[in-house]
Design goal:
Chain lengths: ~375, ~375, ~240
Amino acid sequence: MKQLSSFVRKEFYHIFRDKRTMAILLVMPILEIILFGYAITTEIKSTPFAVLDETRNELTTKIVDRFDASEYFALYQVVNTRDEAEHLFRQGKIRMLIVFPPQFASSQDASVQLLADATDPNEATQITAYAKQLIAESGQWKVNAAVQQSGGIRPVVHLLYNPQMKGAYNFVPGVMGLILILICALMTSVGIVKEKEMGTMEVLLVSPIKPVFIILAKALPYLLLSLVNIATILLLSYFLLKVPIAGSLLLLVSISLLYALVSLCLGLLISTIADTQQAAMLISAMALMLPVILLSGMMFPIENMPWILQWLSHIVPAKWYIIAVKDVMIKGLGFTAVWREVAILFLMVVVLIALSVKRFKIRLE
Amino acid sequence: MIKYLLEKEFKQIWRDRFLPKIIFVVPLVQLLILPFAANFEMHNINLAVVDNDHSEMSKQLTNKVLSSGYFNLKDVSPTYDRAMKSIESNDADLILEIPDRMEEQLGHDGQAQVLIAANAVNGTKGGLGSSYLSSIIMDFNQEKNGVVSSKVQPETVTTSFLYNPHLDYKNNMVPGIMAFLLTIVGGFLSALNVVSEKEKGTIEQINVTPVPKALFLLSKLIPFWVIGFILLTIGVLVGWIVYGLLPTGNLGVIYLFAGVYLIAFTGFGLAISSVSSTQQQAMFTAFFFFIIFILLSGLFTPISSMPVWAQNLTYFNPLRYFVEVMRMVYLKGSTIADLGSYFGAIALFALFFNILAVVSYRKKG
Amino acid sequence: MNVIETNQLTKRFGTFTAVDRISFEVGEGEIFGFLGANGAGKTTAMRMLCGLSVPTSGEAHVAGFDVYKEAEKIKSHIGYMSQKFSLYGDLKVWENIRLFGGIYGLSTRQLAVKTDELLELLDLKGERNTLVNALPLGWKQKLAFSVAVIHEPRIVFLDEPTGGVDPVTRRQFWELIYQAAERHITVFVTTHYMDEAEYCNRVSIMVDGCIKALDSPSGLKTTFQVTNMNDVFHMLARKAKRGE
């Protein structure tokens, strides 16, 4: 036991001495929370647009004003020809053009043209929808009396769990998943491989300490760091982003520790594959980071992906972790709801350890 | 002198076990997977229907909803509580509850309410799902009552989607990802490169020779520059063969921008190298900046959706400019003249980062 | 003419004085041994002379150039072999020769000639295309030395060049050093093998950052009334605060 603690202390020294990496490890979650919480959204704001007005009457002016006043749009320029507009599109200065043909509103056939830059299709669909609404609101030219819904079925909408539709609710679990994998898997694998490279690993293996303790000693500091980061993320999301912790905090932390364990085992496995630090880092990045960001449901909805990718996402531990966290943290559910995810994570730990041990033995022979 | 240094660099990269594979495999994989995964559109929304009315009308309503193509019917539950279980287990995203005796009520009062309950943990999804559903219901009203709703009269407004008429999200992602890949190769790999020489000790041997530091850094920059170009070409080919995407604009413009951009980012990587003493440090520092650059680049979510402070930050992000340029040349056919200011910005970064690299590289301690 | 001249050369790291006002000279063609225990300050002193480190105070001239203002000029006139041993392991033997020869300005023809010469001399002809990583340590060291003097510099600096090899190989290494000295290349070598001290023309012994003795090996043995350099060292280093 004493041996183990002296080893653990050595590992801590290693890590804490590299102040810059430590600082980065502690700051990164904060950074990501802020970015994801505030900057990563697909809401529409102040879309720059241009107007080609061939009618120029009170009505068209009114419509343009309405657009400009709206938070969704901002008038960039009034143009006189389509070519001018084309230029502006090509320079990236506008993303929509409104064209009022001559005799707009006085003739039956004259209709407003909306030309939207569909480079970002999402944005294009949204801005045209808003635009149509604005036009409808401002124009009563084809007057028809009862413009409001005078009857029929009226939907009442309840938004469950997240009534203000805050994007943070969706991202925070994802950030947790990413940070934990980063610290536990990447750092552990690199740390172990570094000792291999420097030759100090052999020294350790020859010492009376059992190999399993060496690994434990390597893993412990990172586990601790992960806890610190989980705490930071939870604190930030609770106080800064106002994301509630609806369910049991204990359950949440336990699941997170389980996931950290999975990540550590992944790091372990990687360290048995990689010979150099560079290799360990690159494998961790390719095999871990990317899938976590892409296939875990953290940023992009899995349901939209082709079935191969959906299938692949099943082996990404982050995916199950994120589901479990959302269920506990945001929906406030208990263990019965997440037992499936927990079981899968457990299974992963077992499989990974088995694989690592097998690989380790092969290399020793 | 440079000739010998370049020989050395290329040979080392070629002989490395991992590097060449990673340089070409990773980007390829990313190009093949990312565009399919990175997508914010909503289809396949899972719907649970609770029909307490069991009338002709409720059936018609349900049919109409399902035929819209947005929703998958996951569950038909007898009660709201049962439907909620589906939401809790993430089987359903949305509940539509049709009240008891709706048809009767409509006949009597001309009005009735239905409940839409949306899982809003993913706020966007919940919001979009419920608004799709609401507008389908409104259309249903229109059909039934022949009453003009407050929606836009279709004949008044025509919409055209420019540059990406089929609203294919991949057209947006593929050029963006190419930019992203060049960033990784230019920045990451070059950052690790110099540091590994530091760690091995070979850098001292170079420091003691009359090789000027600018020349040494240049010899590091050129190979990655060349690799970047090769990657770009592969990317263009993949874009064409796999996605059927060819640049609308001039391919030469793309290469020109890529050239300057690579200089900028390789310089950035070299600067990080110069101030890092271990590969781990270099990797983490690079990573730290990359996360910021990538999230604030408009690659995954639009810059215009960001809060003002974030938008201002993006001006300092070279990736932002390059992503836009790639998209603009590919989809809009923008020319050099259109993109003059972008070129200036990227060139400035190239200058800045490389000067930074040279200045921060110390031949003596 | 003196190839190296230092006067009160000092290097401080914060409050720690690694090299404390050393003054000495080395003449052309000398084999000068720079001895001392680990931690005595040898490597730090040498790095200052190579232009790898800026002194805190004092003066030094190498090959006639000032280490403060003309450090880059010094570099064309010196060779260097570091403790960590720095040829490129993933390059072949001939590729390393070509790289460093080219950096030091040898023409293509000169390079070809030199390469053959070196390989012949070191008995490495069969290993021309071997990756340096695959060579045994002794051969690596000999190769590193040869590459360090490929451009016939005024002076070559060797930092603990023979660590970790058997006595026979060490002897062979010193043969190379003698040959270089015969070609008027001054050799400045640090070591903590006291028997190697016997091979030098003159030797200085550093203790706690200062030079505590400077003379030929026989001179030192007489002064301290002992029969070998080991004992000389013991007498001086006993009172050392830094080192083993």
